Amino acid sequence: MGNNSYFAKRLVLGKFTINILISLIIFLVFIGLIEAILRTTHVFNAKTPWIKPDPILGFRYIPGSNDWHFFENDHPITGRINRYGWRDKEWLLNKPQHVYRVAVLGDSMVASLDVESDRSFLALTEDQLNKSSQQYTFELMNFGLSNISQAEEYLILKNDIIQFSPDIVLLFFFPGNDLHDMNRETASHVKRPFYNISKDGELLLDTSFTEGRYYVIRHGFNLVKQHSALINLIGERYASYKEYRRNKAVNLSGKHGKEHLPGYLSLCTTNPDPIFTKNYRLNKILIKEMAKYCKDRETNFMLVTVNIPDIYKPEDEKKICIY
């Protein structure tokens, strides 16, 4: 009787284990099919990532990876990240003779993820310059990274650009984003470096975003999602939700009320937003430091300011005139 009971329990346990294994296999096959569909069709804009966490910049491109982007264009855009971690053709570290190197630094406008690399404004400009020049071969190098400000740009200049010995550095300044992203109070996301100014006027780098569990978890999670379009899709959706919640709570437009201009446009008035006044001061200090850094290394520096014309609306003009 005892043996029968023992064998009956073993039989039930065996069937249960088999059912668990079958269910696990079916689940893994299902996940595998979803992964294959996401990778081949890019449904929901799914793709394997080409960005990784970085302890200095917050994030950066993965060298040797392929990017896939479908946002503002009428067709998906693909590209290649070079071995130095930038979305451009491969570069030589040592500048060849008779090459005039132009390092272009900026945010998404410079990164140009919405067009193929060979159709970006940098590639087209390089092509036109080389067609018209007999003295030099021009090389325009794309050091654009989406969602960065002068804080990250200063770090990129020192840690990435200068090693290539550029003849000139072009910095693209976009007030609409750059003034927002200078401090935690107004930045679109805070897991990034910030500069503060000491009482003595010294620039102090703050990379405290790497402290605590969040960065460790994010770094570990990134190692997994680099190999999975599904996990990357889930991570992107969660990050977008968190950013939406933050933007809604922080109110990136600065002051409240219809009588005030949003954000940095208040700097055009006699009643500027104090937060953006502080941000603008830091913008100017960092840009000045970048110019000095280049000058000390006998590298030319040029500032290019770019803005969106449709920001300036008739109703905004009336508010400016009021102040």
UniProtKB/TrEMBL annotation:
Keywords: Membrane, Transmembrane, Transmembrane helix
Gene Ontology MF: a single term: hydrolase activity, acting on ester bonds
Transmembrane parts of this sequence: 12-34
Name listed for the protein in its UniProt record: SGNH hydrolase-type esterase domain-containing protein
